[in-house]
Write a structure and sequence with these properties.
Helix content: 40-55%
Protein name: Protein GrpE
Order of helices and strands: HHHEEEEEE
Structural class: alpha+beta
Distance between the termini: 175 Å
Strand content: 15-25%
Number of strands: 6
GO cellular component, one term: cytosol
CATH topology of one domain: Nucleotide Exchange Factor Grpe, Chain A, domain 2
GO molecular function: adenyl-nucleotide exchange factor activity; protein homodimerization activity; protein-folding chaperone binding; unfolded protein binding
Subcellular location: Cytoplasm
Strand order of the largest sheet: 1-4-5
InterPro entries: GrpE, GrpE_CC, GrpE_head
Radius of gyration: 54 Å
Number of helices: 3
CATH architecture of one domain: Roll
Largest sheet: 3 strands, antiparallel
Shape: elongated
C-alpha cells in the first residue's frame, strides 16, 4: 500500500487550551441589578413615578376638600351676616318702640280724663316727659344743648346767625332748638346763635 492510504497522523488540536483536570469554570459576571447579588437594588422608575403621582393626587384631594369646607363656611358666615342685617333693618327700632309705648299710653290717659285742672294736666305732662326722657336715655338718644358761652362746634351745632355780643367770638349766644345724638352720631344739630365778638 502507498503512503496515501495510510491514516493521517493525528495532530494535536492547537485550538484547545489545556486546563488542569481539577480546574473549575470561572463564574459568569453578574449583570447589574441582578437580584441574586447583594447591595441596594435600584427601583423601577415607572413604579416610583406612579407612587409620587399617587401621593401628589392624595395631597391635591385633601387640599380640594379643605377648599370646599372653607368655601362652605364662608358662605354660611355671609348668609348669617345677611340675615342679621335684614333683622336689624326690620327690628332695629324694637327697643326704642318698646320704650315709647308707655309714653303714648300716658298721653292717651291724660286726654281721656275729663274736667281736669290745669295743674293736674301740667303734672301729667311732666310725668310723661320724664318717661320720654328715660326712653331716650335707654336708647342712647342724647340732647345737644350747648350753654351760653360754649364754643361753637360745627359738627354738632348749626349757626342761624352771628350777632355782636359781649361773649368771645365763635361762642354760643343762644340755643334756639336742641339737637340730638344717637350714640356718637348727630341725628339733628342744635340751632344756635353765634357771637361775632364785641362790636
Amino acid at each position: 500500500m502507498t503512503a496515501q492510504n495510510e491514516p493521517a497522523e493525528k495532530r494535536p488540536d492547537t485550538d484547545a487550551v489545556a486546563q488542569p483536570a481539577d480546574a473549575t469554570p470561572a463564574p459568569e459576571s453578574a449583570a447589574p441589578g441582578d437580584p441574586g447579588q447583594g447591595g441596594n437594588t435600584p427601583q423601577d422608575p415607572i413604579a416610583e413615578l406612579r407612587a409620587q403621582l399617587q401621593a401628589a393626587q392624595a395631597r391635591a384631594d385633601e387640599h380640594y376638600d379643605l377648599l370646599l369646607r372653607t368655601r362652605a363656611d364662608a358662605e354660611n358666615v355671609r348668609r348669617r351676616a345677611q340675615e342679621d342685617v335684614s333683622k336689624a333693618h326690620k327690628f332695629g327700632i324694637e327697643s326704642f318702640a318698646e320704650s315709647l309705648v308707655p309714653v303714648k299710653d300716658s298721653l292717651e290717659a291724660a286726654l281721656a280724663q275729663q274736667d281736669q285742672t290745669a295743674e293736674a294736666l301740667r303734672t301729667g305732662v311732666e310725668a310723661t316727659l320724664k318717661q320720654l326722657s328715660a326712653a331716650f336715655e335707654r336708647n342712647r338718644l342724647m340732647e345737644i344743648a350747648p350753654a351760653v358761652g360754649a364754643k361753637f362746634d360745627p359738627h354738632q351745632h348749626q349757626a342761624i346767625s352771628s350777632v355782636p355780643s359781649e361773649h368771645p367770638a365763635n361762642t354760643v349766644v343762644q340755643t334756639l332748638q336742641k339737637g340730638y345724638l344717637i350714640a356718637d352720631r348727630v341725628l339733628r344739630p342744635a340751632l344756635v346763635t353765634v357771637s361775632a365778638g364785641q362790636g
